[in-house]
Amino acid sequence: MPLLEPKPGxxxxxxxxxPAPDRVPDRLAGGTPPALREELSELLGAEKVLWKVSxxxxxxxxxxxxxxxxxxxxxxxxxDDISAVLSYAHGRQREVVFRAAGTSLxxxxxxxDILVDVRRHWAGVEVxxxxxxxxxxxxxxxxxxxxxxxxxxxxxxxxxxxxVACTLGGVVANNSSGMTAGTTRNxxxxxxxxxxxxxxxxxxDTADPLADEELARAEPALCHGLxxxxxxxxxxxxxxxxxxxxxxxxxxxxxxxxxxxxxxxxVEILRGLMVGSEGTLGFIxxxxxxxxxxxxxxxxxxxxxxxxxxxxxxxxLFNDAGALAVELMDGNTLRASVSVAGVPADWAExxxxxxxxxxxxxxPDAAGRAAYERRAAAILPALELVAPVASVTNAFTxxxxxxxxxxxxxxxxxxAVGGARPPGTTLITxxxxxxxxxxxxxxxxxxxxxxxxxxxxxxxxxAAHGNxxxxxxxxxxxxxxxxxxxxxxxxxxxxxxxxxDGSLKAEHSTGRNMAPFLELEWGPRAxxxxxxxxxxxxxxxxxxxxxxxxxxxxxxxxxxxxIPRVEEVADPCIECGFCEPTCPSGxxxxxxxxxxxxxxxxxxxxxxxxxxxxxxxAYGYDAVDTxxxxxxxxxxxxxxxxxxxxxxxxxxxxxxxxxxxxxxxxARRFRAVEAGxxxxxxxxxxxxRVLGDRVLVAVTAAARKAVGPDLVPxxxxxxxxxxxxxxxxxxxxxxxxxxxxxxVNRIFGGPEGHPGPSLxxxxxxxxxxxxxxxxxxxxxxxxxxxxxxxxxxxxAGNRLMANRVVEAAWGWTAGGRLPLxxxxxxxxxxxxxxxxxxxxxxxxxxxAELRIVDSVVWAAEELLPHLEIxxxxxxxxxxxxxxxxxxxDEAQLRAVAGACAREVVVPDDAxxxxxxxxxxxxxxxxxxxxxxxxxxxxxxRQFDAHLSANRMCxxxxxxxxxxxxxxxxxxxxxxxxx
Length: 978
Prior knowledge:
Blueprint lengths: L33 H11 L4 E2 L2 H6 L13 E4 L3 H14 L3 E4 L14 E4 L7 E4 L4 E4 L5 H9 L3 E2 L12 H7 L12 H4 E7 L5 E3 L5 H8 L1 H15 L2 H10 L12 H4 L3 H9 L8 E8 L1 E2 L3 E9 L2 H14 L3 E6 H6 L18 E9 L2 H14 L20 H12 L1 H7 L6 E8 L5 H14 L5 E5 L4 E8 L4 H22 L10 H4 L3 H20 L54 H13 L5 H16 L6 H5 L6 H12 L2 H12 L1 H22 L2 H14 L29 E4 L2 H5 L11 H11 L4 E2 L11 H6 L2 H18 L7 E3 L2 H10 L6 H9 L2 E3 H9 L9 E6 L3 H6 L2 H11 E5 L13 H4 L2 H6 L1 H8 L5 E4 L2 H11 L3 E3 H9 L2
Parallel strand pairs: 2-4, 3-4, 18-19, 18-20, 20-21, 22-23, 22-24, 24-25
Antiparallel strand pairs: 1-2, 5-6, 6-10, 7-11, 8-9, 8-10, 12-14, 13-14, 13-16, 15-17, 16-17
Helix pairs in contact: 7-8, 8-11, 8-20, 12-17, 17-18, 21-22, 25-31, 29-41, 31-33, 34-36, 36-41
């Protein structure tokens, strides 16, 4: 056993607790049944089969109120894997569910048998015909696809609020639409073609001119059956009229029966049926979308009304004026969104009945926008507007920041309101549509029904299309609360269908919670056609049974998940999955959502259970050790949950007194540690030049085995050599700023073979040229931003160093009169923000007076205006660091790079490199996984410069790409050198 092995028992849940009724049973403590695991491993390869109990638990949850634990998880890499799994399932009478992002709100991404992950290896966008079309793989997020299309002035039609996380496979499988798509821009209307895998394993590319001929050979009974159903429907004029009427408003309940009317061949019918089929008819392996123009001229307003019906009554006026989006938010939604960064704090004081409309007009040019502005101005005087708090303007604006703020509040509806729900309650998200002309009436009826059943729900929606969403919270562990929810659902479904002839699901697809009510909405004739469609395409019911069709009238009450209390920082999580695309460990071990899901399952278990033991055994590596700690999950989470902070706390809990004392001693004697580390780096550089990397790889491997893999770094190729022993000479007199070279830049030098000055030399030189000289204090050695201790959870060392560096900075900057310029973005973040909770009261007051400036911001805002650019390179690719995202200074990195290069590229897949100081050397598999997609973009072409703003991130990208990354400040020095 390593000398300083972390103590997993320290993460055991504390305090007395009763086992939850929906806890994972002890029979799954060993994970996947051995026979199932062995057969699938032999079929696909062991690396594609996830079988531990922790794997099953983390995949058992999506964004819905349901939880179903799979027997096994398969990570499919290609269509061959999909076909193999389907063939296996047929032969063994098993069930298969496909899961991509897991942002579905009705349990579509869950199953109790074989669950297939189709996100990890299924991302990619190919722009076609100058952007008029796009070929997209199903694991690609809407946000990523639109980023590729934006360069061509194009955009996808569907625009769900979860675009940053949801994937195109799920968008098509659910016929998701969103704020502007309505019934004309949704997936059904803008999908050009798709490639699908039928339950039998047959692959169909609907764009292939020979697709019908090949399908007829492979599946003659299917082709005959589809055309027979088409003929039967078309022979019934009343049924045809009913189907057409149902799709005049948004509707995703059941299968798209209009596919039989719109398609003329079996393949065309299949293409339509797959949209909204929720993985129950086949696997969508690829889609081709017809894209739409990206109109960039906007005029937008957030208009406040005294009540929800008053706001709804104004919707037709804006629809008639040509608004592309008219979004409704009630008072509960507005008040809850205060938790979202940038939302005015005074919204918390809005009166209970207040409602708002977010109205947006989009035009291709300024003239079109001006015309819309005139139309909007003519409407406003007739509206019953109110301004109950100071931040309300009730005016249209073209300011991008204001517009982005409005949309951020609107898109956070589910997550912000859900995060504010009572602790321990389960969140239900409902989605229905009525004819837009009856929206105000529907709002009044919904509010009355909620009050009747004791719910104070939040309401929002796509008012322009008569589409409303509302949220309910109840305790799934309390039978009485479940009964109250069941009674409400029954009354709500009858109200929607019988009074409004509405859609029980407008854009979230049927799912488990609406499947029992499908026949209520469609009637027995149409419902029977849907059952026959399912039996025709999937006669053995292999794919996702119960997700669209279910004859059990109580099916929507089965599998409701309890929400046990966890640590305060994570307790508001509603498991939406918005955090997952930004997480650097998502393709290696776990995501922030999964870390919280696993923690909740620990809380469900009774003390000493074998399931709890299995979860704790895996959690150390899968959750704690492989968290980069970059906290970009907090930026992605609409309620600001910082799972990185939770993992740092867990690291602290696993430390024993001996480790804490050693870390504190290292902080106390950091001057010697720094000098010793620099000498070790220099010696290592000499050894590798003579003997290569093998000796140091062997030595560090032995040390990691003896001491602990989370404490001793692994030697990696391309580690830079040592920095110079002495920093550049500078003068305090006349200095415009104090320059603080981060310890990493005092220890490591630049990339091997890179001519020119070191980073400290470059910062000093370029500042002098701009007439803004900087001064490096003589006693910076032995100080640090404290991130070394903070990231590892060493509280005593963190506290010691945080207070030391703030006291030193106070003296260096003459009490804050000079700015402190820091040359590593993570250190800037550490000094500006992360040290604060660990400061004494006196030092907190000193810190408040400091002006801490990242060197990139210093260069962009203070130096560039006074510099002459003398030479540029042709192209530069940037790696914006995660710390820069927290600091909000990516634009300044672009500005500095733009002065140095004629072309500046930020990869679409740029994200956290996960090198995280030394974590990339402790667990090199983490940055290798985190950077894979960004590295593929970078190495797909040549660049003249590879730039970033943090030395260890540059090392991480060196490792990932084989290209030499260096600071943008070094490039700026070269560009301005006389």
